[in-house]
């Protein structure tokens, strides 16, 4: 490409999404005072466009509308145009998405919203095609109509926007009504289980017909439900639902069988044809949930999936300095000479390509069998492509195959008269060849923004995997990422987290001119990560930092009147609403996770006011938890933990001693949702002993590593047998 014809203010930003739009003919502004002042001075409406760099429909709307000189001229003449990266500014996204969902019944990205000069929304939607169609009004028409309305009916629009804002304030308020206490755990758990059970797909797993999302929050809830009801038919069903879903996902096309990791979601019931972008937050949560599946089942299949995810993240989403990038795009150029990107181009195969790459005859198999025959049979490859045209509206995948495990290894081996062990080696060889071939294709765009919250989720995934699989390398990688956060996304002077940093030139790490302060989710997911990292590494420095951040979270976000935490801190006049998320989605809502964080913090510090805070959050969400708990499965899980009281598993011993290590291995290998782990190493000057003076009274018996299982700082008799300890903490 030659020199761009247009360059706007976004060229000075760091966000990859904003930079993608820096050469549009639209006079884009970033979210900020300069744009707000211009709208007021010129008495113009604001057009707000919100998206993210790996969003397929965001790319489509840019190609069709924002790159059009004619549409750009209309936008520049009538509006002040603002672009927002929703991953950088989830606060802005949430306020206006609340409006779009309330007024249109749906939402998504790109989000398109029209605001008055004082930032109040009055019209909005998601993707608009450029021109009018049979069923949809075009973007150009919408722009001209809204500009006309502002000219003719300004007062009515202003009045309407004020009414809308008041209604949103009222409907989005979450607070304790009167003397509410936390809801009854059994009733809430049972209702949530029944609601999930009704929506469960018995054949393919998951909790809808299509589209199908991984939803780790549902699977974590089911594991906890099983752990609390291990001997009941309901508990057995909960476990079966979770494990079957995880197996079907791992076999499906949502799992990248050649390049590892998981795509965003499946467009069909069978987990077959995915939406191909890969998000860091999915990899982190899925690494954790597959680790739990391995703890519970002992099935090496789940451990292999964990290794697969972490191989992808370490290879493709890791920054040299230790942080993790946000995402890989769904769209890419099919070949180096292509002029147009296509969704999934990097990942899909024709039958002909596979025959060319895998021509070798297979020794010992049915006569005439090639590697391609075996591979294509096992992964459901068809000569004409295996993608249902109904799932491919733009014909981007015509004649292509998305790999999906279509039969068991035993059946494939029997079909070609192979030994199962031999089949495994052959398939591995095939996948490696395909991986080498894929490396020659143009890669999808990589969003190299690094977010505190998502790095937190990834650190948790690594720490839990390292503990459950006894893989020290994963724990070390988690510690490296936590050190990265402390260096690049924490301000030691103010004691506060920052939201984002960016890969700069020559692999440096850059910060924006005015750094974005951390939001509630950044604190919550980083605190959770530091607790997980302490339990896996026993480095008390992570615990100390976690407790510091918990105090800071209380100061910045706690609602002393209505209880629970706001998503944003007070004092930003450009944010019309301070909201509390009320739904676990692709990521759990921060208030859901923070209940467990607070209970863990209390166990590690002795500050019992944190337990009280946890109860107040549950009280604030009580009505929702009792009516539709399926919207908050992570908070339902936390409700059970709150009422059960966390077990403090304290091991007195030398962390390097073999007897201590055996006890730690037992604790790490058992899934127990209501425990915290600590090691009392006898260093009375250490951080834990200063926080919890009672540790000094616990001692080793007969010079051996000794475990105590405590509840509210009251401890059981000492245990020196590893077997006995495993029995006590097992479900």
TrEMBL record:
Pfam family, one: Thioredox_DsbH
SUPFAM superfamilies for this protein: Six-hairpin glycosidases (SSF48208), Thioredoxin-like (SSF52833)
Gene3D superfamilies: 1.50.10.10, Glutaredoxin (3.40.30.10)
UniProt xrefs under InterPro entries: 6-hairpin_glycosidase_sf, 6hp_glycosidase-like_sf, Ssp411, Ssp411-like_TRX, Thioredoxin-like_sf
GO terms for biological process, alphabetical: carbohydrate metabolic process
Positions of the Spermatogenesis-associated protein 20-like TRX domain: 7-168
Record-linked CDD domains: SSP411
Protein name stated in the entry: SPT20 protein
Gene: Spata20
